[in-house]
Write a structure and sequence with these properties.
By secondary structure, the chain is of the alpha/beta class. About 40% of the residues lie in helices and about 25% in strands. It folds into 2 domains: about 10-130, Rossmann fold; about 145-260, HUPs (Rossmann fold). Strand 6, helix 5 and strand 7 form a beta-alpha-beta unit.
Length: about 270
């Protein structure tokens, strides 16, 4: 297996239809690897019979699709709090990448209201892709927008993820350089290295440049460029700094014009 590939990909499945879209992403990533796939559901003890039935139906549907492709796939269901169970199970399965779909009422951008996603960002040790699904009918992105700041923290895992998306969907990758005030006269070194590494992994890129409000600029570019997917890097700012200076990734993830992923690199080597 190529060192850029993921060995085990883990996707969360629940009663919400958005989780099946995340599941289709996971299946495509696993098929391109090839990787082992884990379909995981944590059922709340107070969940209604209807919710349990929908989650089980989604698990069965995704399991059949993965099996049709002859992927090594495991289906796991547990009962309890996902914030407690998911990090433990992901470690037990030696997971490289977790896909976590935000539920329709889950607000990543609201820092004052603790959401499951906030806990999982701190506790999951593998690479983590948090998904906001807007369009159910576009599971295969053809245009992938990758916003980049002047400094790119932990570029290697993010490059690995974007290269995997490209290999899975053969989508075009657009690197979007956005500055709050003025663009630098020359391309920042971090961005040049990021682009070069993508090219080394056979990912062709286009480039766009803009200035202005970061969150609104990303949203506007995604909409006017008719992109299918935005891939953001998780904020390095503390909660206090985000409250005072804002969180552009949170703004975009709240109401993106297309499907969006917030990628956070793992806490330990895969």
């Amino acid at each position: 297996m190529h060192p850029m590939n993921y060995r085990t990909i883990f996707t969360v499945v629940n009663e919400h239809t958005v989780s099946t879209v995340a599941g289709h992403y996971a299946i495509a990533l696993a098929a391109a690897g090839p990787s082992r796939l884990v379909l995981y559901s944590a059922l709340q003890k107070e969940a209604s019979p209807a919710s349990i039935h929908r989650a089980e139906r989604h698990l069965e549907q995704l399991f059949k699709e993965a099996s049709t492709l002859a992927l090594p796939v495991t289906r796991i269901t547990e009962s309890g709090l996902i914030t407690r169970l998911l990090p433990l199970r992901a470690d037990a399965e030696h997971t490289d990448l977790v896909l976590y779909p935000l539920t329709p009422d889950e607000q990543y951008h609201n820092l004052l209201r603790q959401q499951p996603v906030h806990t999982l960002l701190r506790s999951i040790r593998s690479d983590l892709a948090i998904m906001r699904i807007i369009h159910m009918g576009k599971p295969h992105p053809r245009r992938i927008l990758v916003p980049l700041g002047r400094i790119v923290a932990e570029p290697a895992p993010r490059i690995r993820f974007i290269a995997a998306l490209h290999a899975s969907f053969h989508g075009g990758v657009i690197l979007f350089h956005l500055a709050a005030d003025t663009l630098p006269e020359s391309t920042p070194r971090d961005i040049t290295l990021f682009r070069s590494e993508l090219h080394r992994h056979h990912v062709a890129t286009l480039e766009r440049f803009a200035t202005g409000h970061i969150g609104r600029g990303i949203t506007a570019e995604a909409a006017t460029g008719r992109n299918d997917l935005i891939v953001l890097g998780a904020s390095e700012r503390s909660i206090l700094r985000q409250l005072f200076y804002g969180n552009p990734a949170g703004d975009v993830m709240h109401q993106p014009p297309c499907n969006a992923i917030l990628f956070r690199a793992g806490r330990q080597p895969s």
